[in-house]
Amino acid sequence: xxxxxxxxxxREMTFVVIDFEGTTPAGHxxxxxxxxxxxxxxxxxxxxxxxxxxxxxxxPPPFAPLTALDTRQTGITEAMLAGAPDPAEAMARIDEYxxxxxxVLVAHHASTEGNLIYHRRADxxxxxxxGLLDTIPLAKxxxxxxxxxxxxxxxxxxxxxxxxxxHRAMADVKVTADVFGRxxxxxxxxxxxxxxxxxxxxxxxxxKANEPVQSGLF
Length: 218
Prior knowledge:
Blueprint: H1 3-6, H2 8-12, E1 14-23, E2 31-44, E3 47-57, H3 68-74, H4 78-81, H5 87-97, E4 103-107, H6 110-119, H7 125-128, E5 132-134, H8 135-142, H9 151-157, H10 169-190, H11 196-203, E6 204-205
Parallel strand pairs: 1-4, 4-5
Antiparallel strand pairs: 1-2, 2-3, 5-6
Helix pairs in contact: 8-10
């Protein structure tokens, strides 16, 4: 392929595509009701290996109940959440997968996932300290003439079928992974990016948990 996928650093990296569905209670940050993650490594010749996958529903706290709008958007119902684990338990399980790095999280509009993870950082400190890669700036760099950079727009551009359960976490993870793979292939063949370092410099986002803390004024 090209310089990007020939970079040893990229081949050693595990890319964890992650997505959350959540409620948006007034006066509080979004609260997760579902998470899915899919870990991928590049194996050469345009191929990716799936290393592990994780998904879980989560019972929202009382101040952030599931709404009718949430159900229309995601298909998730109160009955589905009745036996789901608490967010602390479901989020902590992700850290169990992140034992052997290096990892980077991949998400479409990564600040949304990053903020949600940050607010649950006590439950998943390893996940919260993991950097992110945002597919939106990557798409803007490689596809400057698109009308917008919504996930559905990119699915249409690459002729990726829209899943019937779009807006469920694992369905969105799988199509985001497909888009990510297409973007990496395009960056490789066009020579737009030459290494993992240049990829992260353009589309990487530091985890909020790793941002320096501003000291108070005395």
